[in-house]
Amino acid sequence: MSDAPLIHTTKGNVPVADLKYATAWEFGPTWVKFVERYTDAAGEVVRESCHVFDTQGVVGSGALA
Amino acid sequence: MANTQAMCTSFKKELLTGGHNFGAGTLRASASPDTFMASLRLATDNLGPSTTVYSSTGEVTGTGYSAGGMVISGWANPSTSGTAAFTTPTQALTWTGVTITNPFDALLIYNQSQGGKAVSVHTFGAQTVVAGNFTITMPVNAAGTALLQLT
Predict the structure, then answer these.
(1) Which of A54, B12, B19, B96 could serve as B150's disulfide partner, Cβ 3.0–4.6 Å?
(2) Is B45 contained in some domain?
(3) Does residue B42 belong to any structural domain of this protein?
(4) What are the residue boundaries of the structural domains of chain A, listed by start?
(5) Do A22 and A4 meet the contact criterion of CB atoms below 8 Å apart?
(6) Which residue of B has its CA nearest to A13?
(7) Which range marks the domain in which residue B49 is found?
C-alpha cells in the first residue's frame, strides 16, 4: 500500500503528486477571489475550488434625490 | 437649533427587522427572523436592482448543488453606526464537493419566508468549480462594509 497522499478529483482519488497545482488571485471592486486548480498530465482540470472574500456589501441610500 | 431633512437612522434599522409596513395587510405575523437563502447565479443570468423574486431560471446546476441554494444560517442583529443601518450573515457560505461547469458570477440573497422576494445581488467575477469547494466569506459587519447597508 502506497503512502502517497491522494486527492479527490473528477477521476476519483489520485495521487496529488501526479497533478499540477496552480493558484490564481483576482481582485474586483468589492471582492477578492482565490482559485486553486489541479490539472492532470493531459491538461484536464480535474479539481477546481474557489474562495471569495466579499469585502463590501450593497448599499441602499436614503439620501436626498 | 434647526431641523434637518433626513431619513431617520432608526427607521433604516427598523426596516431590517420588519418594523414598518406602508402597504395593505400585515406582513409580520411572527417575531421570528425570516429564512433567507443564497442562490448561485449563472453568468448568463440578468439580475440586478430590478430583480424582485428568486427564480430557478438562471440558477446554477451541478453535482452537490441543490436548487434554491443554501440557507443563510444567521444574521448579525441589525445595528446602526452614524446614519447607517446594517447587517451581515454571521457565517461564510460554503458549498463542498460541488461541480458547476457553467460559469457563474453572482449570489442572489432572497427571503424564503416571504415567497422568495429578492434582497440583494452580489457579483464576484465568472467562475467554475470542479469536484471542489466554493466559499464566500462575508465582509466585516460595520458601516461601509456590511453585506446589507441602508445609509
Answers:
(1) B12
(2) yes
(3) yes
(4) 6-54
(5) no
(6) B131
(7) 33-150
Q: How far apart are CA B68 and CA B51, in angstroms?
A: 16
Contacts of B120 in chain A (CB under 8 A): 57-58
ipTM of the complex: 0.91
Nearest CA in chain B to A48: B130
In a domain, B16, yes or no: no
Q: What does each of the 151 residues of chain B score in pLDDT, given as a tens digit?
A: 887 777 778 888 888 888 877 777 666 777 889 999 999 999 999 999 899 999 999 999 999 999 999 999 999 999 999 999 999 999 999 999 999 999 999 999 999 988 999 999 999 999 999 999 999 999 999 999 999 999 9
Is there a domain that residue B77 lies in? yes
Number of domains in chain B: 1
> What's this model's pTM, rounded to 2 decimal places?
0.91
